[in-house]
Amino acid sequence: MRAAIDHYEREVATVGSQASVREAADAMRASGAGSLVVLDEETHPVGILTDRDLLERVIADGRDVGATRVCDVMTQPLQVASPDDPLDRVVEVMSANGVRRVPIVRNGALTGIVTLDDALAALSDELHELTAGRRRAISTAERGARARELAREIAQRAREVGEQLDELGAEVKSTLTRELEALQERIRSRRG
């Protein structure tokens, strides 16, 4: 399986940890994203804010969107992966932690994000490649099997033709022998 670096989105919507939930919601709408990676003052990723976090921890709790800070409602600890991690490890992180997005971090810096949709698309591509390879292998195997079957059929037919020629040869020999004997008999009867 290929590395996460082959599948992640490099453009990641972010928000500062001290921003208000209102600012975060506006950033989500502007970017068309369902989540924002939360960065601390040194721009290190420290959490993630999802549309579900807004619904459950802000709206459902009746919090003031202008006064509530992102750091108070974000999901943490942040589950991350390295660009060098295989994609299946990223999927394991998603599964084990019940998350749909895993930020990609190198040396403490955010470099991208892998979403469940990215992983599913990559896995779908790999399944397609495996299926196509299997089809090619089966096709090659089928061609080989058919060639062996044809070779057996040709060998069997050659044996049958050989036997027929042998039978014809014996028949011809027998016929020739009878005709020679008949000819010799005629010759003897003329002499005698």
Helices and strands in order:
Blueprint: E1 14-16, H1 21-31, E2 35-39, E3 45-50, H2 51-59, H3 87-97, E4 101-106, E5 109-115, H4 116-191
If you had to describe this structure to a student in words, what would you say it looks like?
The chain is an alpha+beta fold and 192 residues long. Helices cover 56% and strands 14% of the residues. The chain has four helices and five strands. A three-stranded mixed sheet has the order 1-2-3. A two-stranded antiparallel sheet has the order 4-5. The protein is rod-shaped and about 140 Å long.
Q: How far apart are the termini?
A: 100 Å
What integer value in Å does the Rg equal?
A: 40 Å
Looking at the structure, what is the overall shape? rod-shaped
Main sheet makeup: 3 strands, mixed
Strand content: 5-15%
The structure class reads alpha+beta
How are the strands ordered across the major sheet?
1-2-3
Number of helices: 4
* Unreliable segments of 5+ consecutive residues: none
Summarize the structure.
The protein has 192 residues and is an alpha+beta fold. 56% of the residues lie in helices and 14% in strands. It is built from 4 helices and 5 strands.
Question: Can you give keywords for this protein?
Answer:
single chain, 192 residues, alpha+beta, three-stranded mixed beta sheet, two-stranded antiparallel sheet, 4 helices, 56% helix
